[in-house]
Design goal:
Blueprint lengths: L2 H4 L19 H15 L4 E5 L6 H14 L4 E4 L6 H11 L10 H17 L4 E5 L7 H10 L10 E7 L1 H7 L5 H6 E6 L5 H14 L10 H11 L3 H17 L7 H11 L1 H6 L10 H20 L6
Parallel strand pairs: 1-4, 1-5, 2-3, 3-4
Helix pairs in contact: 2-14, 4-5, 9-10, 10-11, 10-12, 11-12
Length: 310
């Protein structure tokens, strides 16, 4: 209802994980480089963690777009309530296979192995992405680990990306999952935005939604959004969406800090975001810079090895 008023073609702050709206901050760029490098070089297990609302699923959808454009067979699971048999059935179905209802687990595993081996012989990697992995049981995580036993003498046939909240890191530290922990070759992490990144994020989403460049969010409003959201993208979306609605109702073309303050009180977003403040603290800038430089080298190597996926 406000799109025409603000000169927009789409809803800029929809909470769906649309990769077009992804802002590649240094941590997000590092994470994406880590994931693509790990997959291209067949590293086995890769871990991506971040607090609630920091954009993990959006980043994964960006990765999925890239994988599918490369023709990489990919299975993506986001349902943590599946049991072992259901997960295997889902993986086969997502890979384009047609498991028969009532097939034994052994038969399903054999079908999966044959598929992976066939793709490997054709020079292709197969990727399994498990979202919300922090909610998986120890038993199911162990089942997923066992899938990486599908291998040749030199290469893993299946690359697994585990995605979850910080609780996932705590879970895999348990003694019962030490075998899984030892197989994680690469780790990536997402963090809340800085103030500057919050402004960039709002501007990018407005641009993708068709904004004509006019100032919609006053700089003081951006500061208020950052303060109340603590840099959590999902909370930024909530604040900005309702700010657009409120400004439209009052026929205001520019959103002020007062509008953000009012919405923050109405929706209680401070308490929603504060739980991520400590867990989502970013690593020191120097460390992050060093990692960026290292991953640039890895990305260059990944480009060189891109024939693995072609």
């Amino acid at each position: 209802m406000y799109k025409q008023f603000f000169g927009l073609q789409a809803n800029p702050f929809n909470v769906s994980p649309d990769p077009r709206y992804l802002l590649l901050t240094p941590p997000a760029e590092e994470a994406l480089a880590c994931l693509t490098y790990g997959i291209q070089t067949r590293r086995g297990f890769i871990l991506l963690t971040g607090e609630v609302g920091t954009g993990k699923t959006t980043l994964i959808h960006k990765l999925l777009d890239w994988l599918r454009a490369q023709g990489v067979p990919t299975a993506y699971s986001f349902n943590s309530l599946l049991d072992s048999s259901q997960l295997l059935q889902f993986i086969l179905a997502d890979l384009g296979l047609s498991p028969t209802q009532g097939d034994s687990k052994t038969r399903i595993l054999l079908e999966l192995y044959n598929f992976l081996l066939e793709r490997f012989r054709a020079g292709r990697t197969t990727v399994l992405i498990i979202d919300e992995a922090q909610s998986l049981s120890q038993e199911l995580l162990e089942e997923i680990r066992l899938l990486t036993n599908f291998e040749t003498a030199t290469e893993k046939l299946l690359q697994v990306v585990l995605v979850g909240q910080p609780e996932l890191e705590a879970k895999i530290k348990q003694p019962e999952l030490r075998a899984l922990r030892q197989r994680i070759a690469l780790r990536a992490k997402l963090y809340p935005f800085t103030l500057d990144e919050t402004g960039q994020y709002i501007a990018r989403r407005l641009q993708v939604a068709g904004a004509n460049g006019n100032t919609i969010f006053d700089p003081t409003a951006v500061e208020a959004v950052y303060r109340h959201s603590e840099g959590i993208p999902r909370v930024i979306n909530v604040l900005c969406e309702h700010a657009l609605v409120s400004a439209f109702a009052d026929q205001q073309k520019t959103i002020s800090a007062d509008i953000i303050e009012s919405i923050a009180v109405d929706f209680g977003v401070d308490s929603y975001a504060s739980s991520a403040k400590e867990n989502g603290k970013r690593a020191p800038k120097q460390d992050a810079t060093e990692l960026v430089e290292a991953l640039k080298g890895l990305a260059a190597l990944a480009d060189h090895l891109n024939g693995v996926l072609e």
